[in-house]
Design a protein that fits this description.
The complex is a heterodimer. Chain A is built from 9 helices and 7 strands, in the order βααβαβββααβαβααα. By secondary structure, chain A is α/β, with parallel strands linked by helices. In chain A, the strands form 2 sheets. Chain A has a 5-stranded parallel β-sheet with strand order 5-2-1-6-7. Chain A has a two-stranded antiparallel ribbon with strand order 3-4. Chain A is globular and about 50 Å long. Helix content of chain B is about 55%, strand content about 10%. In chain B, α13 crosses α14. Chain B is elongated, with a radius of gyration of 25 Å. At the A-B interface, α1, β3, α4, α5 and α6 of A face α1, α6, α7, α21 and α22 of B.
Chain lengths: ~180, ~425
């Protein structure tokens, strides 16, 4: 998929947490995965299976013991400067994630339109971008996931995280097809 | 990557601390420090810098470096984006409150926190308007004169004039908040405050008239507080106020006249008298306690406020409320018996227009999802649900087929 480590921002982390199988999905990527400390600090909730029930708190902390996902912070002056710069236009989790990706040449997994636009405007070296749909599709192909299991994962993201790929996502049609399969 | 490449990249990108007015950044840092309850000396010790450096930074006389800003944010438990994020900056409400409420603010940091919260929400509102390229309605009347008559007469006259201006007639006002937002241009925010604080009002040229109401208070009290703060707009526009619940005898003249305005505005004498007379006519045994509870619900005021108002209007004997209290009358029990839900929670903590502007900015890619959540003071999931709500998906039947339509309530009609 990408040959470099990946940093997940909250938008993608929330979607994967909603599946209950986020760790397996991330492990299938075959590269190191990180979340920055500002993302770990964010309170994340998902919808309960029964919409009448209260939402559920979920945490990235549950991914950490396996070692497949690690917490990361800006380390160099460059990364700190980039973090502050990006924080003028993004929230802290998004800004810190992008700053570290920019500083270290990592890929950024985000579905956020504004974060992707800002990342896309950066001059060489550019930051590689991934989306929830790309990550899930990669997992499905890599593991040969059964249609029923893929549908369960996609449904969980839609229903519990309230996310559907936007119209301009090249994998939206794939998502919708997989979602409607028996 | 070699050092020269890094330097070149930064010269392209890291300009925010050079672009931002150091006085604005200093003011934000000062507000965050005060909010965290830290002295300049304590901060200097923790940051391992001289106190004079902290003073200079807060005054905008010395620029902060990125590593320093990150450490300040950690120390104050704030986000870096709180300091450098692009948002409107206006003259501080805290300073206004401080000059008007010196004693109260100095005695209690909770009051200052209310002022800061109101300022931040109001700045966010102004920033959303800036992003959308729109400005809010400002249909403020001239400031009414409050001298030359008794407090009650002044309040009654102003309430009548304002009702007339807004075309409210003399009946109960069912949608006071919406009317004040749309037809007067008040920026009205609800958030949790200490129970002794009912609300706050502040005005400046940049942000306009801004009101905060304690979301923890019961509906009737919230309605009263809203009318009270509106009274400040009409009579004391340039004097920021925090409304603290005090015994009437302890209130300042300004608070008393604002309360009298609320009483007259919410329960105008003519309309209330007419309804009371109708009740009398329709029940041979006379007006009942149940009638009073229902009438208070209709006017969205407390039963106590209604009974006292009717005492003032001489429709009930003086001392009626005191007698009811002495007899052990329980309002909530009476409301339950009548099936009245007198205390629904606040449905919208922000003005609907504020939420629509925020969602629109997000959908246009002008706000990130994290920023949207911050603007709405909520988490990501709730933000996504709010976006969904404003982008109601509906189905349309066309020649037997149902098609999904997206009804975007935040979209301006002109852009269709």
């Amino acid at each position: 998929m990408v040959g470099v480590p990946i940093i997940l921002d909250t938008s993608v982390a929330l979607n994967l947490l909603a599946t209950g199988a986020g760790l397996a999905v991330l492990e299938s990527l075959g590269v190191k995965c990180f979340v920055c400390s500002a993302v770990v600090d964010e309170a994340i909730y998902i919808r309960s299976d029964d919409p009448a029930q209260p939402r559920e708190a979920v945490s990235i902390d549950t991914w950490l013991p396996s070692g497949a996902v690690k917490v990361i912070d800006p380390e160099s002056l460059l990364e700190e400067e980039l973090y502050v710069q990006f924080a003028a236009d993004l929230d802290d989790g998004e800004a810190m994630s992008l700053a570290i990706c920019r500083g270290r040449g990592y890929a950024l997994a985000t579905d956020d339109r504004k974060a992707r636009r800002i990342a896309g405007r950066l001059a060489f070296p550019t930051v590689q971008l991934l989306s929830t749909s790309q990550v899930v599709q990669h997992w499905a192909v890599r593991t040969g996931a059964a249609p029923g299991e893929l549908k369960r994962i996609l449904s969980a993201i839609e229903l519990r995280a309230r996310f559907i790929p936007p119209h301009n996502d090249p994998l939206r049609a794939w998502w919708m097809r997989a979602r409607s399969l028996a | 990557m070699d050092a020269s490449a890094e330097k070149g990249r930064m010269s392209m990108e890291a300009k925010v601390l050079e672009e931002i007015d150091p006085r604005v950044l200093g003011a934000r840092l000062q507000e965050a420090r005060r909010s965290a309850g830290l002295t300049q000396q304590a901060v200097a010790d923790r940051m391992e810098m001289a106190r004079t450096t902290v003073v200079a930074i807060e005054k905008g006389e010395r620029r902060v470096t990125p590593p320093e800003l990150i450490r300040f944010a950690k120390l104050y438990l704030r986000h870096v984006s709180d300091f450098v994020g692009r948002r409107a900056h206006a003259e501080g409400f805290v300073a206004q409150f401080r000059s008007n409420e010196r004693q109260a603010l100095e005695e209690n940091r909770e009051y200052e926190q209310v002022a800061i919260e109101l300022q931040q929400r109001s700045e966010d509102y102004a920033e959303l308007e800036r992003i959308a390229g729109v400005s809010g309605p400002r249909k403020y009347p001239p400031i009414y004169e409050t001298t030359g008559s008794t407090i009650d007469q002044v309040a009654s006259d102003i309430a009548a004039a304002e009702r007339n201006r807004l075309g409210l007639g003399d009946g109960p006002i069912g949608n006071l908040r919406e009317r004040l937002e749309a037809e007067v241009g008040l920026r009205i925010f609800y958030f949790a405050m200490p129970s002794k604080i009912a609300g706050a009002f502040a005005y400046n040229e940049d942000l306009g008239a801004c009101v905060a109401i304690n979301s923890n208070h019961p509906r009737d009290r919230r309605q009263w507080s809203l009318a009270h703060e509106c009274g400040h707009l009409l009579m004391h526009r340039y004097q920021a106020e925090i409304t603290i619940l005090l015994d009437r005898r302890m209130q300042t003249a300004k608070e008393r006249v604002a309360d009298a305005f609320a009483e007259n505005f919410l329960m105008p004498a003519a309309g209330l008298n007419r309804r009371f007379t109708d009740l009398h006519r329709s029940s041979p045994k006379g007006v009942t306690l149940g009638d009073m509870v229902s009438l208070a619900h209709l006017y969205q005021v407390s039963v106590q406020a209604l009974v006292l108002r009717l005492e003032t209007l001489r429709r009930l004997a003086a001392g009626t409320w005191e007698r009811l209290v002495a007899e052990g009358f329980e309002v909530q029990k009476a409301q339950r018996l009548l099936g009245i839900d007198a205390n629904p929670p606040v449905k919208d903590l922000f003005p609907q227009r504020y939420v629509a502007l925020a969602v629109s900015a997000f959908r246009n890619g002008d706000l990130s999802e994290g920023q949207l959540a911050k603007y709405l003071r909520t988490d990501r999931l709730s933000s996504r649900l709010t976006v969904e709500e404003l982008q109601n998906r509906i189905h349309r039947e066309f020649e037997g087929d149902f098609t999904e339509l997206e009804l975007d309530l935040a979209q301006p009609l002109g852009s269709r």
